[in-house]
Fold this sequence. Notes:
The protein is mainly alpha-helical and 190 residues long.
Amino acid sequence: MGKSKGKKNIHVSVNRKTQTGLAKRKPVLMFIFFFAFNMALFYVVWLSGYFNANIHPRISSMYAHLSSILLNFLNQGTSAIQDTVNSTAYTIRINRGCDAVEAMALFASALLAFPAAGKKKFFGLVKGLAFLFVLNLIRIASLFLTGRYYPEYFDFIHVEIWQILFIIFSLGLWMFWAKSQTEKKPVLEK
């Protein structure tokens, strides 16, 4: 009987270690699950015919009009027609993928999956999406200027530089926000 008790204790000890290990990993597993769920939901909507026919054209048109306003502050003499920014010297079209929607979804999915208070998530989401929106306006304007003045560099700047920068900014912005949620505030001494 003494031997079977010892084996039972070892079994119980292994189960406790396993449970403790899972308990430690639970927040990470929950984050991964909700992040994946949010991104899957985004892609279901983003790839739908309704989004392509009704929402994407409005987003592209809005970016074209706002980018044209920004470029006119730089004396570029542009106008916007639907998803296109035109001037007598150069024309650029805002295609699917140039609207920053995927990068914004990446940021939003990570933020919403992170364990934090709803109010903090809301303000983080609003500020982060606003930042990425403005950054994309700057991106579009810079691509217009690159295409107009340095057309030989347009593809490199568009594909190699801005796509990488946008992903870095999206993830970096989320990491900055997540770190701010986990930092302990110093307690004032009495």
